[in-house]
Amino acid sequence: MANLLVTGGAGFIGANFVHYWAKHHPADTVTVLDVLTYAGNPANLDGLNSVDLIEGDICDTALVEKLLGERSIDTIVHFAAESHVDRSITGPDAFVTTNVVGTHSLLKAARKLWLDTGTGKPHRFHHVSTDEVYGSLGPDDPAFAETKQYEPNSPYSASKAASDHLVRAYHHTYGLEVSTSNCSNNYGPYQFPEKLIPLFLLNCLHGRNLPIYGDGMNVRDWLHVEDHCYGIEKVIEVGRPGETYNIGGGQELPNLAVIDEICSTVDRAFVETPSLAERFPDAPAAKGQPSASLKTYVTDRKGHDRRYAIDETKARGELGYAPRRTFHEGFAQTLAWYLANEGWWRSLLERAAITR
């Protein structure tokens, strides 16, 4: 039995991981530490009665030390991060504080409790990072492997790169048993509606414009969040300490293809379920019109990386990892979840101004 501390566990990926872990490892104890910013939502953990949610900041090292000691934590899964690139461009300070200083706070606490006073008790510090630390790829460049030089291009990706280096340093300098996973773009349940997929999905339902940056041909590798959770599970269970593993979805698509899939899947849902027209009367699909009519092109954002792609050869070979669903399958499941959980996302729209 393991005792986990999941940082950022009330956020999008973190909450999905907590649901996944509770389902597949019911004997383990899980404590969530989350400062509950705009992206952290206690409702994301509804139904998980065995999970303790502690509202607190990862920068509060004393709090982290207390939790590690009192709850005999042996595994930290670190999701807590500021992650929206647009927000990092307009307000980079929060990204440095949370992603760099916060990660170092956790590492210091883990070193003290597990190595200095814990005499090297079995442990794992797993750090969840992003493919954006590798920079941008040209159309014919090979996909990101773990050996790719770091070339972050936004304050967000630079802050995550710094945190990756700190995690590596604590392994090589102090012997802390760490692992890092760099993932591609996630989508799925509980995603805050500022990211492309939930934003465009909800805009289709409400008849709002679909703002496409630049020419819409920026390419991303899309990973369903549950496949990501499965990959993290494999890293924690069989990944080698000190190693980095890239976790991808194997679905490299330009933004326009993603948007077309969103539009066509929404349109099909309205045909298959006529009652959706009553629930969402402003949707073009409610009037028999294509959701694609909402597409509009806007000025590209600053420093917009052209292409990301993940080479997951190492994770497949060492961990036995492989994504379990295509983007077509995964988005259909995602749309079904958002349609079945309207109360969840409406409460978010009521409490926050959602901007892209």
The largest pleated sheet is described as:
7 strands, parallel
> What is the average per-residue confidence, as pLDDT, rounded to a whole number?
95
Number of helices: 12
Strand order of the largest sheet: 3-2-1-4-5-6-10
Give me the count of strands. 12
CATH architecture of the domain at 3-185 and 225-250 and 304-324: 3-Layer(aba) Sandwich
- CATH-defined fold name of the domain at 3-185 and 225-250 and 304-324: Rossmann fold
Q: Note the beta-strand portion.
A: 15-25%
Which structural class fits the helix and strand makeup? alpha/beta
Rg over CA atoms, rounded to whole Å, is 20 Å
* N to C succession of SSEs: EHEEHEHHEHEEHEEHEEHHEHHH
Shape assignment:
globular
CATH class call of the domain at 3-185 and 225-250 and 304-324: Alpha Beta
Helix content: 40-55%
Question: Which runs of at least 5 residues are low in confidence (pLDDT < 50)?
Answer: none
CATH superfamily of the domain at 3-185 and 225-250 and 304-324: NAD(P)-binding Rossmann-like Domain
Q: How would you portray this structure in words?
A:
By secondary structure, this protein is α/β, with parallel strands linked by helices. The chain has a domain at 3-185 and 225-250 and 304-324: 3-Layer(aba) Sandwich (Rossmann fold). Helices cover 42% and strands 16% of the residues. It has twelve helices and twelve strands. The protein has helices spanning 12-24, 61-70, 85-90, 93-116, 155-174, 196-206, 225-238, 255-272, 276-279, 313-319, 327-340, 342-351, and strands at residues 3-7, 29-34, 52-55, 75-78, 124-130, 178-183, 185-187, 210-213, 219-224, 244-247, 252-254, 295-298. A seven-stranded parallel sheet has the order 3-2-1-4-5-6-10, with helices on both faces. Strands 7-9-11 form a three-stranded mixed sheet. Helix 5 links the parallel strand 5 and strand 6. Helix 4 (93-116) runs parallel beside helix 5, helix 6 (196-206) packs across helix 8 and helix 8 crosses helix 11 (327-340). It is globular, with a radius of gyration of 20 Å.
